[in-house]
Design brief:
The structure is a homotetramer. Chain A contains three helices and six strands. By secondary structure, chain A is an alpha+beta fold. In chain A, strands 1, 2, 3, 4, 5 and 6 form a six-stranded antiparallel β-sheet that branches. Chains in contact: A-B, A-C, A-D, B-C, B-D, C-D. At the A-D interface, helix 1 of A face helix 1 of D. Strand 2 of chain A pairs antiparallel with strand 2 of chain B.
């Protein structure tokens, strides 16, 4: 499990006075940066080899502007060409949202999924952690 | 089933040359406007009585700038205080993404879910449609 | 002068109950699509030849969710390699925001500005209109 | 002058492979948090007393994903009820964008601007710095 700190932006609130729900997947994408680095160490988009297959997200409590949010993330499954990632967002010590994300190692030229190599697996192993729910 | 037309914005693309995945939930939220109107006819945020419980989304094909996207939406389950909604995004005649969304009729002052009344149910019934997948 | 209709999204509001100020430049970028088409008829990003030099924007009145916004746009100056564009956003018949935008015809490979050709000038001329303020 | 560190998000890129221009005002708004705190120490949106009058922004160089951005900010003018703020975004030691922002101390109930008090002026004075261009 690793942590990412997010300071909510005023532009991320909505008229209900909370963080808008569509912002949470943006934060979770940002929290996947260490996973992106396992596959693309330079983060150069011209070498990108990942694609998002889908995710599910649950909103447990409202999230507010004015207090930092801690994102906890881990990889809970590494398949042949895919991986499953979990995220939890905490504010004030409480889980406010959580998600499970499916990503695929992808060859954009061949337009097909491709096996994850041994070197990348070693890096991913350091981020492995069972899903906490 | 009802349709919502979206013209992708250049700012919604990302460095891979597609629409960024975090944009699709934004489009789907926009496509829920007719459902919001069943609960809050004026769309006045001070009378808002809905909360998003969660959603899952699958990305089937890349979505591009420069061609309109049709969102098809329907309500496939109406419970005592909650409802389940499906969305499909189509571009060039193909389904590019789909989602299932859980919303709750909510009293923000009492901070609890609250039963959906008969008048609202009559309006929701017009948007009912089985999930197409 | 040409018009673009925008339906504000709930996710574009902020905790003050208005549309967040950072959204207005996004709407104005969307309203430049007819200008983009003069330079890149297919809107294919691989053929993009425009760069934004800068803009200034004034916020005159709050903008609300629940009512459409009309964007009026025009080109008020066409230089050798650059153009100046104005935008006005109106809601309920009143101007809520306005901006002046400088764009440059740009060769991304050569990394330099490049003269606007005659064919493009003919297309741009149809969108010319003096700035209304 | 004070500094704010921004780590660009993948969702903030666009199809040209750079950070989309509409993102920069979002970063600059985030960089105004210390100024917001002078007026609203809790950052509670129900006590908000600031309104954005407008800004101008210049884009000098493309900004990329994968490298942090430093925002430098200062207040270069404090009027009776308004203030002028400058921002510079630097990446790799070079200024990539800069902006000048006009904000107004505002009473949302009375719907009018209101004089900035002495206590707030003392706090603002610590963030004063001449515009560097």
């Amino acid at each position: 499990m690793y942590r990412t700190l997010i300071t909510p932006r005023f532009s991320e609130t909505d008229a209900l006075g909370h963080i808008n729900n569509t912002v949470v997947p943006v934060w979770f994408e940002k929290a996947r940066t260490p996973i992106f680095r396992c596959f693309i160490p330079t983060l150069d988009h011209r070498q990108w080899n990942l694609i998002l297959a889908g995710f599910n997200v649950d909103y447990l409590l409202p999230t507010y502007y004015g207090e930092d949010v801690e994102i906890r993330s881990g990889i809970h499954h590494i398949g042949n060409s895919s991986l499953k990632i979990w995220h939890q967002a905490l504010q004030g010590g409480k889980v406010v949202a959580q998600a499970e994300v499916a990503m695929v190692h992808y060859d954009y030229e061949a337009e097909s999924s491709t096996a994850i190599g041994e070197e990348v697996r070693l890096l991913l192993a350091e981020l492995q952690d069972p899903r906490p729910w």
